[in-house]
Specification:
Elements: E1 4-7, E2 11-15, E3 20-24, E4 29-33, H1 35-42, E5 50-51, H2 55-76, E6 80-83, E7 105-110, H3 118-127, E8 132-140, H4 143-149, H5 151-154, E9 160-166, H6 173-182, E10 186-192, E11 198-202, E12 205-209, H7 232-240, E13 248-251, E14 257-258, H8 275-279
Parallel strand pairs: 7-8, 7-13, 8-9, 9-10, 10-12
Antiparallel strand pairs: 1-5, 1-6, 2-3, 3-4, 11-12, 13-14
This protein binds iron/sulfur cluster (2 copies).
Length: 333
Amino acid sequence: MNGYFHLFSCCIPVKGAKKAVICDLQRNIIQPIPLFLYDMLVSEDVGNAQFIEDVAYKYGERDKQLIQEYITYLYHNQFGYTTEKPTSAIHINLSEYQDSRSITNAIVDFDLNSKHTLNQIVPQLDEFYCEALEIRYYFPVSFLKIKKDLAPIARSTIKSLEILVELHEDCTLSNILKVNKIYPALKKITITSAQENIVYNHDDLSIIYTTDKIADERCCGVTNEFYCIAETKLFIESVHYNSCLNKKISVDKSGLIKNCPSMKDSFGSISTTKLKDALAKDGFRKVWKINKDQIEVCSDCELRYVCQDCRAYIEDKTNIFSKPIKCNYDPYQ
Ligand code: SF4
Ligand code: SF4
């Protein structure tokens, strides 16, 4: 291989304390690379284009072969391309995150004692043009009830619906597919307390049966290298804002309006407070601005722009900038 090597604009190198990755935002691939290759790929001298023969002079004969092997690997695996002459690299504009909506995603929790309903909440989410909703039932629910509960979704702005529900005797595949036919926004359903762990994929619906027993919101907040997603909008959002809580609103199982059901601060009860009034209260948007570059340990992690954050379960409850406690990934190893 010869010429100048450029990464594609959707392939963004990110450096951590001990490792680096290339995030391919088009194919959702997170490719580990060594630090010296990162430094080489982002060097400014030829607009990020590397004249492959030059590496022999810069890095010495000993490393030349290794670097050439890496570049050949990146080239053959479609992370970049070569040109005969040096040309300026094209970069995705990461400097600005734009979404004029004030709320884009929501969580609504229910337990057996919950008094709130989706009829009350979904029309209010529509006012924000909210597109993503996660509903979590911490008890067994029949599909007849789920079908009835979801009625307001059919005429709503919700385009992506996820449901978590405890196993009920009628949680059959055919019933789930019937619900999906009525509500095509349903993209994922997780059935907890199942007898075995099985995953089915049907068109763009994931059906997950898990033996895990999930009693309440404390199930949430698990984040590590296996939960990372390399996608353009999420990446740009993560550079500027919190990758879980930005533009999120939630109603917990007791009907309290919060950033997420696991956070302790409440901004009123859904029975007496409109979502838009909770959103306008002091402090509601405070956590939205905490990005990974401000979070201890995560700021040194090469996965920081592709990893979902958690501000509810953190290592030091007195320090809102401490690492998510449920992440066991160590960027210093
Ligand atoms: S902040 Fe943590 S607990 Fe809350 S929704 Fe996000 S991941 Fe879940
Ligand atoms: S250290 Fe932080 S950024 Fe890295 S995987 Fe864990 S939670 Fe994500």
